[in-house]
Amino acid sequence: MIKAILIDIEGTVAPISFVKDVLFPYSKERLEKFLEENKENPHIKRIVEEIKKIEGKDLSLKEAVNTLKKWIDEDRKIAPLKDIQGFIWKEGFEKGDIKSPIYEDAYKKLKEWKEKGLKLYIYSSGSVQAQKLFFSHTEHGNLLDLFDGFFDTRIGNKKEKDSYVKIAQKIGLKPEEILFLSDNPDEIKAAAQAGMKVYRIVRPEDAEFIDNFPFRQVKDFNGVKL
Ligand SMILES: CSCCC(=O)C(=O)COP(=O)(O)O
Ligand SMILES: [Mg+2]
Fold it and tell me: Based on the structure, what is the number of domains in the chain?
């Protein structure tokens, strides 16, 4: 019996274009100013050290900015980039510059599942801070109360089985009691390997059904049967 639903963000509850065409440019344009203004903040210093470690060399502030910009262009899903983006998006969400467009079907089903007593969790490459901002500033208002917890790549890569094993442990349920929803076929395979029930969400504007894909595929949340 399904007791909890674990949900991806980009391509699943919101269009990929929102992340690529709104969120990413917003962070890219403000990176340099943000790092310059916050270079003495211990939290930001730690993140910059992580960037240097990944690159395997010392970096000037300008070089760190260029590295982050390159990672945004390459859509790298790595924690130090996602942490910095979360800090930059904070201002955009709080000033009202950015509002998250949640698909209507996702919004309605999330509310329905919550009312039925299911636990709802998010697992996204966006930092936990960014996820909370994303759901507290949506076109449907503040949806933060719908969720029982948030996971990002600090728990592990979304394409690896172990990340889902760890999430099930944190939630305190058996993997088979958790349903995972994502647009990404590799994430679906990894969650299924961990023993979770899965559905791939295939938004027509973002993706296509894969022939002979060994797991269930539906075009939106209305197709998900518990
Ligand atoms: C506010 S969440 C930001 C989303 C993001 O940065 C991202 O890379 C989305 O990846 P996902 O794992 O949700 O597909
Ligand atoms: Mg996704």
Answer: 2
